[in-house]
Amino acid sequence: MNRAVTLRDAAVAEMAGIAARHPQQFRAMPPARLRALALFLASTGLLVFGLWRLEFSPSRLVDGFGQLVHFLGLMIPPDPGTWSRTMLILRGLSETLAIALLGTLGAALLAFPLGFLAAWNTSVNRLVQFLSRRVLDSVRGIDALIWALIWVSVVGLGPFAGVLAILTSDIGTFGKLYSEAIEAADRKAVEGVTASGGGKLHGIRFGVLPAVLPVMAGHVLYMFESNTRSSTIIGIVGAGGIGLMLSEMIRTLEWGVVSFIVLLILVTVAVIDTISGRLRAALAGARAG
Amino acid sequence: MATALTRLPDERLAELLHGYRASSAGPRRRALLLALTIAFLVAVAAQVAEVDLPRLWEHAGAFFGYFDRITMLESGAGRVWADPAEWFWGWRKWGVLLLDTLLIAYVGTALGGLGGFLLAFCASANLVSNPWARGAARRFLEFCRTVPDIVFALIFVIAFGLGPVPGVLAIAIHSMGALGKLFSEVVENIDMKPVEGANAAGASWPAMVRFAVLPQVLANFISYALLRFEINVRQASVLGFVGAGGIGQDLIEAIRKFYYNDVAALLLLIIVTVMLIDLGTERLRHRLIGALESRA
């Protein structure tokens, strides 16, 4: 006779005894499970309520997806149309890249002092640190698209407004990332500088800065990648870049041009990601080595 | 007690200094080259982006003046916070719009999370051995997360008509791409022993995923979904710019039509909501991670 079978038989025969000894395992519904179920039901309920409240209806979805499939058919093949329009698209793309580069670098520079003010170990005092944090948070809470609208009304339409929009919204992000990097820096170096008679600024320059600069450079590259994505769309509100062309083409239903532009964006983003990924890997290697 | 540092003889100092210069020349040259390259790129980019610093200088006052202007009451009776009732005259309408915006973000995140959840298992190297199926799932996810959600929204507005439906779908598709990638990375890092156990006991593929994979990844999945929800609240607040529902519609109208006080009120509402959501999800995620660590 098989040994496993006897073990199972024994367990089945002893069922009542096992149940008496481990009541927890034989409860129909353990409390943890009940809680998870309630949470699941609540979130599903909210989802259903949301679908109802936001006017989802099967007929609308079927109609819409039918339209989408139709558009998709028109998008093939991707075709920029005339030669002059191709040049316009390429000009938009170069503007997008320029906006991303200038916005990222400008924000990286301007956020530099703010990062130190917002980190508890390098700030002037608690109040300054708290205020800097809140200012950075508020700046971050406003989307780049909103900043673009505001800047368009200040300096007028065009890519310059886009640069300023990316720059403003990124100051918040950079400030936060910088201050976190500064707070995570090893404090022994600062103690060393202080012990040999250096002041607070010396401590920052020779103790903190060498440790955080490579981290900051990594953040800058990463944000450049992310900004190439955001600067493709701020043209929608007139702040330069390829987004203006894209939204025009979508509104006039030129689907071949739309798919061409989208493909162009995908390729550009992939290229930028690869280059910046390499640079970041090199940076990380240099830091480790 | 007086301590004196030993002073090295001059020729020894000169020797050391020379060595230091020689060893630091390479990195210095490289840093200079890097700085020159960046300066060149910046100059080209400034040309392309029509950077005009004098104009900025001229209008810098207008930028700060804008914030000055939006916080002045239309009646000229001082700052907006002096009369909150007049400032937030539309709070009923705005409150509903704000809740709608949150709902758009929630439904979008939930639908996108669901899609990402299903696709993540197909895109994981350790669960799907067919490279074609895996590659197709990955490329699709990549496409979904690279195209900005507002571009999806622009297209969907034409297909589905104005309103929150295109907004939700745009957020859902973009989140599906982003979450699907994160989810599949979590799945690829699981402990494979339970999977082997389930397979050895003859479990079907769905049963194996349910009992061997899901318990290991669920907490991480929820944590990522919460992070995405936070991002989507921001996104949902601007989708109204292209007619895809939420509070953005009123905001862009207020900015374009120069309803200054409304701009200030709406911006404040958005900032406060985003901050509260950030704080709330951060708490939740910490609790989730804490619960996870105490179980491990």
Describe the structure in your own words.
The complex is a heterodimer of chains A (289) and B (296). Chain A is mainly α. Chain A folds into two domains: 3-56, no CATH class; 83-288, MetI-like (MetI-like fold, Orthogonal Bundle). Helices cover 82% and strands 0% of the residues of chain A. Chain A has helices at residues 3-13, 15-21, 23-26, 31-53, 58-75, 83-118, 126-141, 144-155, 159-184, 188-195, 200-230, 242-251, 255-288. In chain A, helix 5 packs across helix 13 (255-288), helix 6 (83-118) crosses helix 12 (242-251) and helix 7 (126-141) crosses helix 9 (159-184). The termini of chain A are far apart. Chain B is mainly alpha-helical. Chain B folds into two domains: 15-50; 85-295, MetI-like fold (Orthogonal Bundle). Chain B is built from eleven helices and no strands. In chain B, helix 9 (205-239) packs antiparallel against helix 11 (260-295). The longest helix of chain B has 39 residues, at 10-48. Chain B starts with 9 loop residues before the first helix and ends with a helix. The chains are: A mainly alpha (289), B mainly alpha (296). At the A-B interface, helix 4, helix 5, helix 6, helix 7 and helix 8 of A face helix 1, helix 2, helix 4, helix 6 and helix 7 of B.
Write the layout of secondary structure elements.
The complex is a heterodimer of chains A (289) and B (296).
Chain A: H1 3-13, H2 15-21, H3 23-26, H4 31-53, H5 58-75, H6 83-118, H7 126-141, H8 144-155, H9 159-184, H10 188-195, H11 200-230, H12 242-251, H13 255-288
Helix pairs in contact in A: 5-13, 6-7, 6-9, 6-11, 6-12, 7-9, 8-9, 9-11, 10-11, 11-13, 12-13
Chain B: H1 10-48, H2 53-70, H3 84-87, H4 91-122, H5 131-146, H6 149-160, H7 164-188, H8 193-200, H9 205-239, H10 248-256, H11 260-295
Keywords (chain A): Membrane, Transmembrane, Transmembrane helix, Transport
Domain ABC transmembrane type-1 (chain A): 93-276
Subcellular location (chain A): Cell membrane
